[in-house]
Amino acid sequence: MYDPTVARLTYRALLGRRRALILGALPLLLIAISVVVRGLAGADDQTASDLLGGLALATMVPIIGVIAGTGAIGPEIDDGSVVYLLSKPIKRPTIIFTKLIVAIAVTMVFSALPTLIAGFILNGNGQQIAVAYTVAALVASIAYAALFLLLGTVSRHAVVFGLVYALVWEALFGSLVPGARTLSVQQWSLAVAHKVTGGELVTSDVSLTTGTVLLVAVTVLATWYAGQKLRSLTLAGEE
Amino acid sequence: MAVEQPLATPAGDQSRIHDIGYRGYDGPRLGRAYARLSLYSQTLRGSYGLGRSVKSKVLPMLLFAVMCVPAAIMVAVAVATKAHDLPVPYTRYAIIMQAVISLYVASQAPQAVSRDLRFKTIPLYFSRPIETADYVQAKFAALASAMFVLTAAPLAVLYIGALLSKMDFAHQTKGFGQGLLSVALLSLLFAGIGLVIASITPRRGFGIAAVIAVLTISYGAVSTLQAIADSQGSTSAIPWIGLFSPVTLIGGLSTALLGGTNTFPGGDGPSHAQGAVYLLVVLGLIAASYGLLLRRYKKVGL
Lengths: 239, 302
Known about the structure:
Shape of chain A: globular
Distance between the termini of chain B: 36 Å
Number of strands of chain B: 0
Mean pLDDT of chain B: 87
Oligomer: heterodimer
Order of helices and strands of chain B: HHHHHHHHHHH
Largest sheet of chain A: none
Number of domains of chain B: 1
Number of strands of chain A: 0
Largest interface: A-B, 39 and 38 residues
Mean pLDDT of chain A: 85
Radius of gyration of chain B: 25 Å
Strand content of chain B: under 5%
Structural class of chain B: mainly alpha
Number of helices of chain B: 11
Order of helices and strands of chain A: HHHHHHHHHH
Helix content of chain B: over 70%
Helix content of chain A: over 70%
């Protein structure tokens, strides 16, 4: 199910030159802000929770997920070089699975790891906040990567639709319409984080069972459908 | 069949240019200004997907609708309840809808410039009688106009609705004018930032992600820092933190100079003096992005 060559090529496409710059800049910014906040406000659990929840989990993880998830396959389909990959005797679901593993790994390294570091800078993991948000970021990385990888195979405007989901649906509608939060990767991952740490500061609007079931369902279904989609891929011309 | 040429042609009247009957063009030559205008109008139409495929119309039209629908709802509510003022002031509307505006500029800025880089059509443009500055001006003006249409349309909806429900004419007109001024600055600022980022990469998808990352992350970071500064009681720092993201720049500017309500947490928002700093920073950023674009296109693709 895992092909090392495809993985190596995907890593190089994802972390090549400028893409690595923006992927690296976001975590650095988060850590820089944490240092500033720690200097300004001192160690405060509520502040740490606000910053990690509002900036790291709500904004940074989805954006890195979009870049890694769609970047793992989108550009190849876009410039047509995916046909060289598809013409090799490798099963299409294997290609998708490998690319998914790579996208998950990249998202985790560039979002969960800085979240943990920022958490420790902010309040030294008081009340398990750093660990809780790191767990949430790890879980969310998997679901986001699978979701956005599927988008990359379905649409040529995958990045836009991914961002619309992450920013408009989760952030805007999620804050206005409470029902929208049930269908939000962010809340599902928070449910898992809440269970893991049992703290009071990290809470979620969905129950653990709902969150876990939906997370697994979305990840598996998205991966399966992306594999199906790649089996019948037609290369369209540039619009 | 090609006739074999002797390697050393003897000097004299042996060589000549044959007239093989192609017609020359002797119609009117429309020149540089016309080319610039065409580039402007094509880019502006393209920003809303006009003259392009149905698929590329979906997103800009959808975002346009999302911008206008809340304004229409507000007007309907205000008319039904016979309110004396709009629920949201004109200058505040764009700040509330900043996610939609950011998405629009992120999706359309790469549309305007990245494809020219990717398909290497830049040299073709510059083989026409336009200069680097013309190309940059046309693209900048077109994207800024598209943004202005996007941000001013809901204000117009609000204004017409306010007049229909017989709110105070002078008060509403003043607010509408201030709102238009603030979204005009917003359009120029966002278009400049979007184009500078998009002109660096020929990849459309990557350009979109980079623009949205710059706009959203900076806004998220600044609002978080402002909230923390507010809870720590250091309210004097809040306006200065607001200088570091495009959305809060416009928000603070409208608060200080255009009579808007405070969009920052706590306190009274930036003072008049701080508003002048905001204005300088906004104008400086617009000029800087124009300069950077000029510099970028001096070299690119040639």
